[in-house]
Structures are given as C-alpha cells and as structure tokens.
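user: can you give me the structure for this one chain? tokens are fine.
assistant: on it. calling the predictor now.
[tool input]
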Amino acid sequence: MKVILGKSLILRGYIPRRARCLVVGGVLGLVLPLAAATSASASTTVVVRPSSMGSWTAQTNDSTGTAVPFGTCANGAVSFVTGPATPPLGVGSAELTTGNGTSGGDCDAQLRNSAYAGVKLSNLNALSYYTYVKKNNGQQAPFITLYVNNSGNANGSADDLLFFEPPYQQPTTGNPTLPDQGPVAYNTWQSWNALGGGWWDNNGVLGFGGFMGVNPLSVYTAQYPNAVIVNDPIYGPGGGVTVGVGYGSAGDQFDSNVDAFTINSTTSDFEPNLPSPTKKDQCKDGGWKDYADANGTPFKNQGDCVSYVATGGSNPGNG
C-alpha cells in the first residue's frame, strides 16, 4: 500500500551546500549509519499517517530551494508505504524520492517537524532515526537538518543550518574521535545516532563536511550556549527539524525510507493510512481498531465502524 500526500504548501526552503562526493581509495565511497543507539530511551511513540500528520509536514523543493508540488521534480514525492522489509516500528515507513537518473536529483524531498521551536540544542538528549536506502548517488542516506537561532530567539530567523549526514560517520570519512557508525548499506534498515555523531554547518563552526569536517553538537553549543531550534519564517516555516534526500546532481536518483525518528522523549512511527472496512464482520471483535474511513479518520468503536459500512461510507469515522 502506498499513500502519496498532495502537494507542498511551504513557500521556500534553503539549499545546503552538500554537493560533496566522498572518495575512498580512489572510488566514490558510500558511507552510512550504524545501529543508532539513542542517548535516552523514548517514552512516547506517535503514529504519523497522511491523515494525521501532527507536527510533521511533507514537501519537495526544486533545485533553487523553492517548494513545489509533488511531481514537479522527476519522481519528487513523500509517500507513506508498507515496508520495505520489516520496519523498526509498525508495518510501514515514509519513502522519500527525487530524480529519475536524468533530472530531478538536484531537487529535495523531505519531512519537516515544527514542534521543536525554542528547544535549546544543549537540551537535546536523544536524536536518532532509521533509514533504508534503495537508490542514491553512491553515498547519500536521508540526512537531518536543524535550523537554529544562535541568540536563543525562539521566534527569530535561522542564523545557521546544521547537518547530520550518514556518509560522514566513520573515522576515515568524518571525525576519528567520534563513534564509528559504519558504511551505508543498501536494502536494509540501519539506525543512526545523530546526537552522538558528527555534524557540519553552513557557517563552518562545526566544519563543512567530509573528513575532519564534522564535529559533535557540543562544539556548537560551547560557542553558542543559547542556540535554539527555530521555524524560520522564510527558510523553514514548515519546521526547524527536517529529514530528507536530494540536493545532489541533476542526474542523481534518490529513493530511501525513514522510520522511528526520535527526538528527546518522542518517537515518530511513520505509517500508511489504515484501510477502510467493506463488511460489518470486519468491525467485530476489536477489528474496528484496524480500519478507518476513506479520509483516514479512525473509528471510535465497533458501532461507529458498522455504521460506516452500513451507510456505504456516508457516516464518517468519529475516532
């Protein structure tokens, strides 16, 4: 099952300087995550579906950073799908795609979260996620971007953008003093401990990426102890925390999934919408919990589900 969201409502994004190729031993290297252990165990898991996005927004940006409707860039979309394989949580995940091998690889597909405006970088105690890479440019896996205001103005503009990229999480490709999170692998779920990993930023406080070009977030907070995440009104109105793919070369092709995205005490479980029942018996014995109406609204109880079926969908779910 695949559910693709409509179109982006965000007016403009920001293009990070990430057109870097990682060369290892003269060959374009593919570096990825390690099984990311969170620094603090999450106490809340929130199921995110197209019908109930909560604080998440899905969008695609063109090569200039302008948000565009899905499909404007070749294969540009954010989809909620079943699988692939066995996701870390639930039965599904969010799929991020852009590029067809000829065009669109310089665009971006991302999920943005607006719930963390005002959270100080120094107060992050867990930041991790899982990725499943199917196609990339030889190195990229879904990466995290944080929009930050260095003076602590939660309603201010972003002074800098901070990036966690899986290709820079090995001693030979990033910072040798940080944990080795291993190389990127295809067609398997991998976990990334972003909180304990290496970051770079647009202003170069942490570096500009690559070998010896990433540092832990503690280096940033030492210089800017009041730095907070912001939903920048121009560059990041959809949210100051993003996870996405793309911004490579036009001929690149990206297709990866993300799931179990954890920030502090909350983990987001990305799932497709629930199916709709077609028979009253599907609502019995607790079965109503596994269904929703055509708009993705869950049912409140068995009677609510039965009413939906009996009226041919005229009575929507009330869950």
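assistant: here you go. The mean pLDDT is 88. The chain has two domains: 2-270, 275-319.
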